[in-house]
Design a protein that fits this description.
The protein is of the alpha/beta class. It has helices at 2-16, 19-26, 46-68, 143-154, 174-188, 199-211, 215-223, 240-255, 276-282, 295-308, 315-324, 329-345, 352-362, 364-368, 372-383, 387-391, 397-413, 418-424, 430-446, 448-466, and strands at 30-35, 38-43, 73-80, 90-95, 164-167, 194-198, 227-231, 259-264, 286-289. The protein has four domains: 2-95, 2-Layer Sandwich (GMP Synthetase, Chain A, domain 3), CATH 3.30.300.180; 133-289, Rossmann fold, CATH 3.40.50.300; 295-362, Helicase, Ruva Protein, domain 3 (Orthogonal Bundle), CATH 1.10.8.60; 372-466, Chromosomal Replication Initiator Protein Dnaa, Chain: A. α3 (46-68) links the parallel β2 (38-43) and β3. The relative contact order is 0.07. The structure holds adenosine-5'-diphosphate and magnesium ion. Magnesium ion (MG) binds at residues 174-175, 231.
Length: 467
Amino acid sequence: MYKQVWENCLQFIKKNVNEQSFKTWFSPIVPLNLNNQVLTIQVPSQFFYEWLEDNYVHLLKQALTREIGPLARLEYSVIVDKGNDSNQPLSVNIPANHSSKHNGNSIKDFNPFSLKGIGVHDQSSNLNSGYVFDNYIEGDCNRLARSAGYAVAKKPGVTSFNPLMLYGGVGLGKTHLVQAIGNSIKDNHPGKFVLYVSSEKFINQFIDALKSHNAQEFSNYYLNVDVLIIDDVQFFRDKEKTQEIFFHIFNHLHQSGKQIIMTSDCPPIELKGLQERLVSRFKWGLTADLQHPDFETRVAIITRKMQSDGLIIPEEVVEYVAYSVDTNIRELEGVLISMIAHASLMKKEVDLELAKQILKNLVRDIDSEVGIDYIQKTVSDYFKVPMEDLKAKTRKKEVVIARQVAMYFAKDYTNHSLKSIGAHFGGRDHSTVIHAVQSVNDMIDTNANFRHKMDELKKRMKMRVLV
Ligand code: ADP
Ligand code: MG
């Protein structure tokens, strides 16, 4: 009797949802009994139940009313896994439209990471053990993000930094930092299930799961995680279905005090193509950015890398490289690696000459994209004005001139925007940079002594830039 009733409900539902949704969300349901107009259905998990309630409650009600009458009610029976020692699923009844505490999830033998085409280094957490706090250099550029990460690593899910959202441009250390958090949690809390996944991988797994009708197993797998690290969520852009499932996973984990850590290449507010409700969740915890590393941090990073590779390179080389490459840390590492490769191939020491050669040949960009720091250093040496003063508020005449000259060269020799140049000079705005360029041009036109200085400086600059 109840089977037939449910079968009729299904016929009705089938006409009102698309095939994929029907297969994913209705085929797995097992009718259990019908008693006093209460139909009990068994669903595979708590998540499944919530999904039905969120998305299909009206449809279910309609179907039930048609079959049973206006007093019809629905009750869910959720399969709960009672731990590893029990293979018998346990049922927990949940009346429809009635919120309830979670009792656990049904965890089947399903692991989206074992789906074909998905490579993993470490089946259990997908973390790269080389990314740790120990080799993550701290600087002004990452202080907030790093200390928030550190706090989360100590007490995952407990701090108010949940979710922890880190954002910043490419190569600035997002992946390294979130993996360091993951590795540290694994060390501090061996019992916790930490999972790192890139958002591309998450999307592909979800698509595969949909294709193989494993959507609910997919969610169950993720709902079982204690610390979920999702890298580069900007790739969720315009992926409606993925966002939906992620939204549910997110809510679920968050509600049960599980830690969520995410990265993105831009601040949440600029995440275009993401549902508003998802973006607003991202802002619940702490959002911290990673900025371009300053000169001192770059020196520290280079020194650290060299040490860990057992290499010694002269200080002037370290400084030269740090001055010249101010784009991002990944590029900095690229330069170091090729320097070392050249040195060992040519059986030469790494010295300034080699560094210059390599920087010249390596990346075309570097000729034109000489770092602003490098320009500032050259100008400050030439005018004997401390480099900090170029970025400071000082209005002393000789400082103002040096600052304007440095801005002028930054405009000429780099591809930085006026805004970005201003930012490199203590956060001045772009009109200040325009004004500086004009003043320098005026002085070149009207002051022979200044013109001579500029020629000299240009030679120096070119020598350094191109040698
Ligand atoms: P993103 O994910 O932001 O693109 P990554 O985390 O992949 O950047 O970092 C690029 C490279 O720079 C990695 O090899 C990483 O180890 C290194 N790196 C980034 N930040 C730091 C840092 N603060 N200290 C040491 N190495 C760093
Ligand atoms: Mg990354």
